[in-house]
Amino acid sequence: MTTPTWTHPRTAAPWAPPLIPDELRSVLAKLCRCQPFDGSAVRGDVKTALGTRPPSQKQADELQVRLPGHLRRLVCITVANAADPAETTAQLLLRARAVSTQDMSDNHGPAVDHLRRTARVVDELLTRLVELRCLREAV
What we know:
Elements: H1 21-33, H2 39-50, H3 57-80, H4 87-101, H5 108-131
Helix pairs in contact: 2-3, 2-5, 3-4, 3-5, 4-5
InterPro entries: DUF6415 (IPR046300)
């Protein structure tokens, strides 16, 4: 009994890395800067913005940085979840776009109003993504 031999020609190209070392370093640097999603921090910022007392000037300044970041991240997650064609989600995305294109006022009162509008959209998007099981409920 003889062992069968391979009679087909080898047509596969030899393996080559998909990126050169400099590109790999760039990807690694981006991965190292990546922050994990923290639903508790998002809920905390929403609670601060929507609380019965308006946030202080210092809190408002901090929220001006964090809330738009939360909104961008949630919009990206929502858009990536193409399995949800619901009208509710589309309306939330339109509201997110409208809120993110508005300029933030330098006066504390109007700035807090804008922060609260942003926080409402962030909260509704987060709730929707939890309902769709794209994210876990923040504890």
